[in-house]
Design a protein that fits this description.
- The protein has helices at residues 14-18, 21-25, 36-41, 86-100, 115-123, and strands at residues 5-8, 46-50, 53-62, 69-77, 105-110, 127-132, 142-148.
- Helix content is 27%, strand content 32%.
- By secondary structure, the chain is an alpha+beta fold.
- Bound molecules: coenzyme A.
């Protein structure tokens, strides 16, 4: 894997992240990442950079209602940096910081059509369930992921 620096996010990273999400997902995703995620969850979110700038990010948080659970809301790697282990490294770093916070379980969700995400999470040892019908409201099924950390 090329050299990537991974650090905790800061609120100001939002401006760099939000301009790449649609391109990195290949569809409109900006509405799913309002600024509040970086304002309030930057301590548990991660930014990867290389000589070309931002190369990946993970937006995650410890559940305020369930002391044992850490949830990953968004993860993405710049298209040219994929399949070299950066996504796995971002998760490993998130698991480590979450364990330091006393978390024991990691969860995430994705849309049933995101086969890359499903394969990625399965490769990382997550249990894959669903599609869970109406998970996010009528007609909005989701795949759910969970693993111990
Ligand atoms: C999902 C994503 C973050 C993976 O990042 P990555 O850096 O390419 O992943 P890694 O190289 O660390 O791969 C980790 C594992 O996932 C698997 N994997 C990654 N991409 C895959 C793909 N397209 N198809 C099948 N498996 C894949 C790898 O084979 C690897 O498994 P292994 O270690 O057993 O060989 C990246 O493809 C991405 O940014 N996609 C667009 C955004 C997205 O859909 N995010 C997830 C939903 S929030």
């Amino acid at each position: 894997m090329a050299a990537h620096e991974i650090r905790r996010a800061e609120p100001a990273d939002y401006d760099d992240v939000i301009v790449v999400v649609d391109n990195w997902w290949g569809r409109a995703m900006v509405d799913k990442l309002p600024r509040m995620f970086l304002d309030h969850f930057h301590r548990t979110s991660l930014i990867a950079t290389d000589e070309a700038g931002i190369s990946g990010f993970l937006i995650g948080f410890g559940s305020p209602s369930d002391d044992l659970t850490a949830h990953i809301h968004f993860v993405a790697v710049r298209p040219d940096a994929r399949k070299f282990g950066l996504g796995r490294t971002l998760y490993d770093e998130f698991f480590a910081l979450s364990r330091d916070d006393g978390r024991k379980i990691a969860t995430a969700i994705t849309s049933p059509s995101n086969y890359t995400s499903i394969d990625f999470h399965r490769s990382l040892g997550f249990t894959v369930a669903g599609p869970v019908r109406n998970y996010n409201g009528p007609g909005r099924s989701q795949i759910t992921f969970e693993r111990p950390i």
